[in-house]
Every structure is written in structure tokens, then in C-alpha cells.
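Inverse folding, one chain.
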């Protein structure tokens, strides 16, 4: 099993010591080759679960009252930070909603890609530069050599998101975590970016796809989980069947609303 989230709870503690449970008793599994879509309204705990997997939540305020997150059987929650850093990027690729949140504004995009490659791969700088350019071309950035010298703010939102996808996928991670990868983009560009993600990730990797957009899930996911108030209220191994007849009343509401939006 690539990823096994086993009875995970995550809470946040504020400065006054008050505790907000954000994920409660969450159990999910993901095999290689699968795309697991997690849907649910804002605040339901989707990002909390996704970011826990790469232990990217600032802690404090986040803490883990219970549970395990097993990546190929090894618990990432109890892993030393040094080991965790070496698997981020290389074994776990993360694509965030906001590219500016994870691209450095101070460095040219080509240099950022090269730095990440050299951190994980024992290859020459020249080979890393060639690889970075190859990935910029793969994600559909025109004139990669010129663009590689641009700073993130000199690119459009769609182009920035493509750079993020290159960053998330280029090292061939086993697990890809995409948290609302297309929410900030125009509808036409959303479709292109989703197609890229689908085409460029290795067939034997697993994808954890977080979105509030059921349309995205129906296009991309091979299985899905519905979250509400920090809990998983429904899972399905057959997204098409789920859309025809969701069983939980909350899922029924989500599907009804998505279909209503489609008719608009
Ligand atoms: N740093 C934090 N400190 C305190 N509470 C937090 C923090 N981050 C998230 N929360 C709370 O945890 C709960 C789950 O938030 P989370 O961001 O995981 O939801 P989400 O499903 O990803 O929502 P969205 O669709 O808006 O991205 C919410 O009640 C939120 O207010
Ligand atoms: Mg979120």
C-alpha cells in the first residue's frame, strides 16, 4: 500500500490553549496508480489531512493526538525531520493552490528548479539545467530558455501553476499531493492544467487530489472520499456510481449542488 492514513486526528491549539479538532478519526488508503479525490466544503479538513501527509502543517499550532500516516509502511508522523526532508520532493510531490506560496519570489524559476533537482539527484549542474528546461517545455511553457530566467511575478497565474506542476512532478514522486491545484485559475486554463497533471505523472504513482469541485473529481479521480467537519462521511471506489447515487445526505447535497451549477 502506497499510503495508509490510519485513524488520524489533527487539531490546532491557539495561543490561549484552546483546541480546534480539524481532522477526526480519518482512515484512507491509496494504492499506486490510483487518484484519490477528497471533496467537502470549506473548513471540512481537506487541507489539514493532505498537508499532514507531508507533515507540512506548522506545528504548533497543529498537533496529532492520534493516528499514523504510513508511506509504504513507514510512519511519516514519527519520522525524523531530516529523513522527512529527503522524501519531500523526491518521494512526495506537492502542488499547492497558491504558486506564490511555494515559489520563492527572489529567485529565477529556472534556478529554483535546478536547486530542487540538485538537492535530490546526484547529477551535474549542467544536466540539472537541461532537465529543468525539459520540464518547462513539458508543462507547456513557451520558449523555456527565456522563461527560465524570469522571476515568478513576471509570469501569469497559469504559467506559475505550470512551474509548480513541473516542480511537483519532475523528480518522479511516488505520491503526489495536489491541494486545489486549479482553483485560482480561469476555467479554460483549469482544464489544461488538469490534463497536464493527468498526463505527466508516472502511471505507477498515486495522487491525492483535494478539491471542492466535484467536476474535477469526476474527471480525474479513481476513488473518492467526502469530508465534513473533519470526518470522512463517505468513500467510494466508483466515482461514476457515486455521482448517480451518493448515500450520505451531505454527499447528496454536494452532488445536487454540483449538478445545478453545471446547468447554469
Ligand atoms: N492554523 C490554524 N489554526 C487554527 N485552526 C485552523 C488552522 N488551519 C485550519 N484551521 C481550522 O481547521 C479546520 C479545517 O481547515 P482546513 O483548512 O483543513 O479545511 P479545508 O477543507 O481545506 O477548507 P478549504 O476548502 O477552505 O481549503 C477549519 O475549521 C479551520 O478553521
Ligand atoms: Mg484547503
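Residues assigned per position:
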Amino acid at each position: 500500500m502506497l499510503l495508509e492514513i490510519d485513524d488520524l486526528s489533527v487539531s490546532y491549539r491557539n495561543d490561549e490553549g484552546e483546541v480546534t479538532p480539524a481532522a477526526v478519526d480519518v482512515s484512507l488508503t491509496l494504492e499506486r496508480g490510483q487518484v484519490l479525490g477528497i471533496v467537502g466544503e470549506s473548513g471540512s479538513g481537506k487541507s489539514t489531512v493532505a498537508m499532514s501527509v507531508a507533515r507540512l502543517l506548522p506545528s504548533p499550532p497543529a498537533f496529532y493526538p492520534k493516528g499514523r500516516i504510513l508511506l509504504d509502511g513507514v510512519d511519516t508522523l514519527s519520522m525524523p525531520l531530516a529523513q522527512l526532508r529527503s522524501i519531500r520532493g523526491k518521494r512526495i510531490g506537492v502542488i499547492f493552490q497558491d504558486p506564490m506560496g511555494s515559489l520563492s519570489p527572489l529567485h529565477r524559476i529556472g534556478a529554483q528548479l535546478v536547486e530542487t533537482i540538485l538537492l535530490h539527484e546526484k547529477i551535474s549542474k549542467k544536466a540539472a539545467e537541461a532537465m529543468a528546461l525539459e520540464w518547462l517545455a513539458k508543462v507547456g511553457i513557451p520558449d523555456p530558455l527565456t522563461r527560465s530566467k524570469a522571476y515568478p511575478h513576471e509570469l501569469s497565474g497559469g504559467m506559475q501553476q505550470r512551474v509548480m506542476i513541473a516542480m511537483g512532478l519532475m523528480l518522479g514522486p511516488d505520491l503526489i499531493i495536489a491541494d486545489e491545484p486549479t482553483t485560482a485559475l480561469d476555467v479554460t486554463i483549469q482544464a489544461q492544467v488538469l490534463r497536464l497533471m493527468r498526463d505527466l505523472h508516472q502511471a505507477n504513482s498515486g495522487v491525492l487530489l483535494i478539491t471542492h469541485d466535484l467536476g474535477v473529481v469526476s474527471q480525474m479521480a479513481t476513488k473518492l472520499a467526502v469530508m465534513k467537519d473533519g470526518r470522512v462521511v463517505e468513500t467510494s471506489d466508483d466515482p461514476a456510481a457515486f455521482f448517480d447515487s451518493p448515500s450520505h445526505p451531505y454527499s447528496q447535497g454536494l452532488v445536487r449542488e454540483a449538478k445545478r451549477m453545471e446547468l447554469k
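The first strand starts at residue 3 and ends at 13. The mean pLDDT is 91.
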